[in-house]
């Protein structure tokens, strides 16, 4: 009975903490409420259950300011990452493999923090008010009178996700599956990628503030393997639920499918795959050298 009473007390306390956290998010959302644009206001009337998502886009392909700004933002990240890589790891002084790994993980960190970070912001703090009768269970954050997501924001940071939502409408709303993956991706994936960049710099330059370079090299490759595996797993978990339910949120427009969905997402498949291949070669080399050293010690009796 004592154990049962303890569980009931723990459950009651957890419920209180959850309610307090939920109220905190609602308060922040009230302070950061963004207006709904005229173009997106009609989407409020066509919600589907589960995640308060707007309907999949049926817009034909067209080059507009929103698309141009979105691609320019991506280009700025690429140029900034390339320039910074050349700055801290000049090509004439450092191994090409380390430069590529540094460049990739720097892009990875920038994308997670700046792009996917803004996605999470709009999922929690950008909303439009609707009648509770328009909503269907389950609803994000338990708010039956609100719909959340970048679609319902007029802020510049929402433009990129409004553009991407033309390919996959889940990114325009607040899909619980996507948000769960992105929370882990931004908080842990982004932090891991930034830390890997620091370790690559220390290993490549031979500078280590704490511990030996060899120790940092081991930590670096271990974290690289963990992050690359997580990136691949995250990609599967992002799209597998959609495929298993008939892809109701995906656009049929060829450009959106080929460029937004296929190209950009396959980048996070092939490059993590290459990273794992490089990690496998590193592990193979280390274990082979360890085996030779062990054999030598046996022969010499040391």
The arrangement of helices and strands along the chain is HHHHEEHHHH
The total domain count is: 1
> Helical percent range?
55-70%
Instruction: Tell me about the largest β-sheet.
Output: 2 strands, antiparallel
Radius of gyration: 24 Å
How large is the count of helical segments?
A: 8
Bin the strand percentage: under 5%
User: Mean pLDDT, nearest integer?
Assistant: 82
* CA-based shape: elongated
Account of the 3D structure:
With 302 residues, this protein is mostly helical. It has one domain (62-292). Helix content is 67%, strand content 2%. The protein has eight helices and two strands. It has a two-stranded antiparallel ribbon. Residues 35-51 have low confidence and may be disordered.
Concise summary:
This protein has 302 residues and is mostly helical.
Draw up the topology in text:
Elements: H1 2-31, H2 38-41, H3 65-88, H4 96-125, E1 127-129, E2 146-148, H5 159-164, H6 176-205, H7 213-244, H8 254-300
Antiparallel strand pairs: 1-2
Helix pairs in contact: 3-4, 4-6, 6-7, 7-8
Membrane topology: Multi-pass membrane protein
Subcellular location: Membrane
Transmembrane segments: 65-85, 106-130, 178-201, 221-241, 253-277
